[in-house]
From TrEMBL:
<dbReference type="InterPro" id="IPR011701">
    <property type="entry name" value="MFS"/>
</dbReference>
<dbReference type="InterPro" id="IPR050189">
    <property type="entry name" value="MFS_Efflux_Transporters"/>
</dbReference>
<feature type="transmembrane region" description="Helical">
    <location>
        <begin position="7"/>
        <end position="28"/>
    </location>
</feature>
<keyword id="KW-1133">Transmembrane helix</keyword>
<keyword id="KW-0813">Transport</keyword>
<feature type="transmembrane region" description="Helical">
    <location>
        <begin position="223"/>
        <end position="252"/>
    </location>
</feature>
<feature type="transmembrane region" description="Helical">
    <location>
        <begin position="97"/>
        <end position="119"/>
    </location>
</feature>
<feature type="transmembrane region" description="Helical">
    <location>
        <begin position="72"/>
        <end position="91"/>
    </location>
</feature>
<feature type="transmembrane region" description="Helical">
    <location>
        <begin position="264"/>
        <end position="283"/>
    </location>
</feature>
<keyword id="KW-0472">Membrane</keyword>
<dbReference type="GO" id="GO:0022857">
    <property type="term" value="F:transmembrane transporter activity"/>
</dbReference>
<feature type="transmembrane region" description="Helical">
    <location>
        <begin position="131"/>
        <end position="152"/>
    </location>
</feature>
<feature type="transmembrane region" description="Helical">
    <location>
        <begin position="158"/>
        <end position="179"/>
    </location>
</feature>
<feature type="domain" description="Major facilitator superfamily (MFS) profile">
    <location>
        <begin position="188"/>
        <end position="387"/>
    </location>
</feature>
<dbReference type="InterPro" id="IPR020846">
    <property type="entry name" value="MFS_dom"/>
</dbReference>
<feature type="transmembrane region" description="Helical">
    <location>
        <begin position="354"/>
        <end position="374"/>
    </location>
</feature>
<dbReference type="Pfam" id="PF07690">
    <property type="entry name" value="MFS_1"/>
</dbReference>
Length: 387
């Protein structure tokens, strides 16, 4: 099993409750619009802040972890999360809610961005398995938050997020007492830009874009209960993403060399991504069963691939410290895609469906070539495998 599970369990659990607190806002959007008398764009900004925070904060988080070790960085993430969610739950105005959401969002890059260094500097050896577990629980929390939130009041949702993050945050805080500071002999810490970032860019941006345009596209195609179907598809994608990250992280660890597995996942992602696109544009008849299966499978294979590519980006680094900077750069590239692609390409699903399909086909073909063409891992990788 993974060494130092004393840290891995609370680290993954905190990723879960952070994702839960983040995406519980998605089904609350109509209520928040009414409560704060704010436009839709202003409420959607509250959800998007986590992505913008990753763009701005991922690389600084990676360098900070390399220089100071994971304990201080993760404890700062815990503090920002709890304080931000507490402000959010107390907010009586949009402005104060926005402040709380900004504070909580700043914790996200500190928790996930430098995952490559967090795992290695904490003594966790089976990094593919551990990466899959952390990313999988993050997505499972996002899925569960979006499913549970509609069944509670807004106030109950927001305070539940505070309590969960406080309790699990205390658990993680105490576990970090067993993690030492970064060793002084890490050597030069530098950013290693790799082609694996393309995988993160494409998978993340397309996943978010599908979630944002599915209801609109299905409405345009006169699908019955299009809004409800679109929400279900988003939940299925998140659930598939959680299963894919954990399952293929484990499988990649068991196989040792993940390159053949990533080639297979790249091809499968291409098939299911284009299948989803053809259903949303009406090239294929959008039956409920076909939509459910296609979006679930897209979530499973794409996020399994995303997780292994993230670990491959870390393996390209020359040291444990640089591994965190590499994964931070990967996360930054992923969220740049999330910030750009849905707004630029998403509207084409209705206005220019052929262009929508062509652009997505070009992007996924380029990404699918990465496991076939990327360089092998750097010399630090053998040191990261179990003895």
């Amino acid at each position: 099993m993974v060494k130092n599970t004393r840290l891995l369990a609370p680290y993954a659990a905190f990723a879960f409750v952070l994702g839960f607190a983040w995406f519980m806002l998605a089904p609350l959007v109509p209520g928040l619009i009414q409560h704060f008398k704010a436009p839709l764009a202003a409420i959607l900004l509250l959800i998007s802040l986590y992505g913008y925070a990753m763009i701005v904060g991922a690389l600084p988080a990676g360098y900070w972890t390399a220089r100071s070790g994971p304990a201080v960085v993760l404890r700062t993430s815990i503090g920002l999360t709890v304080v931000g969610l507490f402000i959010r739950a107390l907010a009586g105005s949009y402005g104060l809610f926005l402040v709380g959401q900004i504070v909580a969002a700043l914790a996200y890059p500190l928790l996930i961005g430098p995952i490559g260094s967090v795992l290695r500097l904490s003594g966790i050896v089976r990094t593919k398995l551990a990466t899959g577990l952390v990313i999988g629980t993050l997505f499972f929390g996002m899925a569960l938050g979006s499913l549970i939130a509609p069944h509670l009041s807004s106030a109950a949702d927001l305070w539940l997020a505070v309590v969960l993050n406080l309790v699990v945050g205390i658990w993680l805080w105490l576990a970090l007492g067993h993690v030492s500071d970064a060793p002084r002999n890490l050597g030069r810490v530098r950013l290693v830009v790799s082609s694996w970032w393309i995988v993160g860019f494409v998978v993340s941006s397309v996943s978010v874009m599908y979630g944002s345009v599915s209801s609109t596209a299905l409405t345009h195609l006169h699908v019955v209960n299009a809004a409800a179907v679109g929400g279900l598809l988003s939940s299925l994608t998140f659930l598939g993403s959680a299963v894919g990250a954990a399952a293929f992280g484990w499988l990649g660890q068991a196989r040792g060399e993940s390159r053949p597995l990533q080639r297979m996942l790249g091809v499968l992602t291409l098939i299911f991504l284009l299948g989803c696109a053809m259903l949303l544009t009406g090239v294929l008849s959008p039956s409920h069963a076909g939509l459910d299966v296609m979006f679930l499978m897209f979530g499973i294979v794409s996020n399994g691939w995303y997780t292994l590519a993230l670990e491959s980006a870390a393996a390209r680094a020359q040291s444990a410290g640089s591994a965190g900077v590499a994964t931070a750069g990967y996360s930054m590239a992923s969220n740049i895609g999330v910030a750009i692609l849905p707004s630029l390409v998403g509207p084409l699903v209705v206005s220019a469906p052929s262009a929508f399909l062509i652009i997505l086909a070009m992007l996924i073909i380029i990404a699918a070539l990465v496991p076939f063409l990327a360089k092998t891992a750097g010399p630090s990788e053998p040191q990261q495998q179990p003895a």
